[in-house]
Task: structure prediction
Amino acid sequence: MPRLLTAVLLLSVSAIAQSQSEKVTGPDCSGSWPTIMAFVHMKNAGLTDNASIDSSKTMTVRLASEKRGKNLWHQVYHVTFTKKSGEVLEAISVHDASLDECSMSGVEVFVVSRHLNPEGR
Result:
């Protein structure tokens, strides 16, 4: 019984810590709104299509999150799509999000045409 209680307490503390972190940094919308909209904009621009992307290799990383209001953050994401051919497409997605909804605004998408010195990370 003490192990069960300890496990429940650890899970509760973890959930509270994550909730408090979100209130400071905003929601992490990786893999949802900024990713989907980057793909839609790139598809509409003729840069890709559904059949050519290996979705298992898609990656989205939040680069910045600035609090703009009581429950509103302005966020920037780096989105990477990998085509089945091995070609990599990169974009920067910018949008507003709340703790309730990642799609508080439309998404501006900037296609990265060249990545200079990627080894210098």
